[in-house]
Amino acid sequence: MDIKHFAFSLLSLPHSYNLRESFSRTPHPHSPMAFSISQTQKQIHTHALDELLCSDQRQEEPHKLQKCLISASVPDSPDRCLTGEVRFERAWDHWAKLGRPKLIVAPMVDNSELPFRMLCRKYGAEAAYTPMLHAKLFIEKGKHRNQDFTTCKEDRPLFVQFCANDPDILLEAARIVEPYCDYVDINLGCPQRIAKRGNYGAFLMDDLSLIESLVEKLALNLNVPVSCKIRVFPDLQDTINYVRMLEDAGCSLLAVHGRTRDEKDWKLFQADWKAIRAVKNALRIPVLANGNIRHMDDVYSCLEETGADGVLSAKSLLENPALFAGFRMGQWITDDEECHTQGKLDQVDLLVEYLKLCERYPVPWRMILAHVYEMLGEGFRLHPHIRDGLNSQSNLTFEYLYDMVDQLRDLGVRLPLYLKDTCGKVSVNGSST
Length: 433
Hints:
CATH architecture of the largest domain: Alpha-Beta Barrel
Largest sheet: 8 strands, parallel, barrel
Family: Belongs to the Dus family. Dus1 subfamily.
Domain DUS-like FMN-binding: 105-372
Shape: globular
InterPro entries: Aldolase_TIM, DUS-like_FMN-bd, tRNA_hU_synthase_CS
Strand content: 5-15%
CATH topology of the largest domain: TIM Barrel
Number of strands: 12
CATH class of the largest domain: Alpha Beta
EC number: 1.3.1.88
CATH superfamily of the largest domain: Aldolase class I
Number of domains: 3
Number of helices: 19
Protein name: tRNA-dihydrouridine(16/17) synthase [NAD(P)(+)]
């Protein structure tokens, strides 16, 4: 199926439905999800009800019975009133089925689109997030939907990330993409002013009950697990309370950016790996770490210090999409320089590969240009007239970009990437030293 022709039949499902009616409703023969209760489902209801009535928490959570009965009528829902060990086992089983990926492309607005994801996957990325998608625009504007979300069968495991502040709108958007992804992710970490104006991302941290309702809505109604990406609170205990609430609401995987909402500049503020370690210790679902990843040494250090199940990289991947393959930029070689060798790859090569992927998987020019500036930044600094020529283009073409690359090469521009040898052992690219 062409990815631009989505299965919109899921949109025909109601945002909510009457609990009493759900027991007698006859399934439509073409409905992708039946709401009637078969004998097996009745047994599920009975088991869930018995668990609830025997639980010491029944007085503390009077709303849980209704949630259990509703979710039990959705046979394949990942969090169908699952409690305790069963729910956590399901989260881990799903993660294991995906191969427990550790090297992951972080969500980046207009930057983690399909061609870039595929380039990163070629160079070691084991999973990836889409750019943040605005749930309301996604369901209302077909052009926005078809341009900003594309995928292919090789583009897995895949997290599709939405920002939203309305549970029903979020669910409607999520149902469109769930056949094409492994997690639907909720953006709870964007710290930018546009997120403040739109009341989403990290600014929902001021309304935890709304966040809880967003997670619960998806967990009870989707056939794929729900993940969340967050920033930490300044106070560690607030962060722990926050992530436990997310886990209880149905989050099956949590990615933690170890900076607060106010710590926007990665150059000025180091991510707090100790806070991520505390989150990992407090939860029973997979946890991913985000922040301070410049090269593979950082990846190994982060995994060790945080205990996280995987690592996300964003900014560093934009400049060096081959990071997860062991390549690093010269600026990150600060000591043991004799143990680094120039690899057979540079940023110009990576850009050419990216452009070819864009021809295969078309995306808006704004996305392509953003990557051109990231990967050729040093070349433009050395030869600003090349950059000025690019800036003056009103109708950009691939032919122009390939010619521009040739101009830089004719000027002797080389932006080499380096591999770390082990000084006497086997190097990253397999050659002996």
